């Protein structure tokens, strides 16, 4: 506990008034008070510095206080911080939509800008439901997904999260009941499991008349368990959904903008979904913003309906500040050097996390692109793990049985080695 009375008072107010994510009210564990962030480091109010191995929940891929992003934000603020998007438009949003169309898989031509990743999934599901209603098949109202997924905390996205191991089992009986199949067999490089492929095909065929869409996280299941799977299952889903008149939605909120080693994870499979969700790293972690893209077929189908508009319109849709920073963030990725950085991160994490395989209680160590995971055979001891991490100058946020990192792409090999060492230490005390 700090001796500084000002810091103690701030933390007292925080405990009394501020409800933090996935925490009780009042809080039982005091959060760390951050005063400043620069590069890959967080400076705490007590003077300590921590290497941020989380990229602020996977978003700050360029680190903090990047001069290009700072300049874009300041320049746009000098012109216009916000203007409603209904009936009005502006250059930053137009340029952002054009960039997203050019960067995402071919065929995704239309962009709906929204507030957050969860909202982008809400919009995606609404697009699919409204498409079928508008094209004369209102009975197609259910979604199919595989277990182990996570798509956000608002209501309809919660319904396509894992119904057992996910955080949203509390709402069973309140949420729409969707169709679930088992999670895809693990391993990015593992061969396709033909029996699992048959299960996918049979389940989609069986429910085709009531399915609006299949919704999955491509290649990496994020908050549901940090699992990696063969991209071939995405190609299979594309074939199955087309054959059965079902839409396909890829949630790339966590995987987009280079995290898996491809700009978008769909590239590993070489397929285009009907609807694509992006968020998190879209603005380089500066402001909340997301987007839902769709094909012309989906957009025109909705426009032919009794209600010929997409029934959604966030107040801060297309926010100019967020759009300008997103354009600048995408610009930083334009020269392709991020690919070398992500390969370097993957190589360094593989080397640094290898000793974790010999730690008692560790069942798997896996790395893909800019993602490193140590999985235990039991729940992480959060207090002990956090102490092991922070005492070594590292900030991570383990959950369930996982100690993992998604570092900023600018992180040096030396800092990556520190993160990896701290993860091994956290596994040893958990």
UniProtKB/TrEMBL annotation:
Annotated site residues (Participates in the substrate recognition with KAPA and in a stacking interaction with the adenine ring of SAM) in this chain: 22
Cellular compartments annotated: Cytoplasm
Cofactors that this protein relies on: pyridoxal 5'-phosphate
A cellular component term, taken from the record's GO annotations: cytoplasm
Pathway per the UniProt entry: Cofactor biosynthesis; biotin biosynthesis; 7,8-diaminononanoate from 8-amino-7-oxononanoate (SAM route): step 1/1
Positions of pyridoxal 5'-phosphate binding: 117-118, 251, 314-315
Xref: PANTHER family: ADENOSYLMETHIONINE-8-AMINO-7-OXONONANOATE AMINOTRANSFERASE
Subunit composition and interactions: Homodimer.
Name listed for the protein in its UniProt record: Adenosylmethionine-8-amino-7-oxononanoate aminotransferase
Gene transcribed to yield this protein: bioA
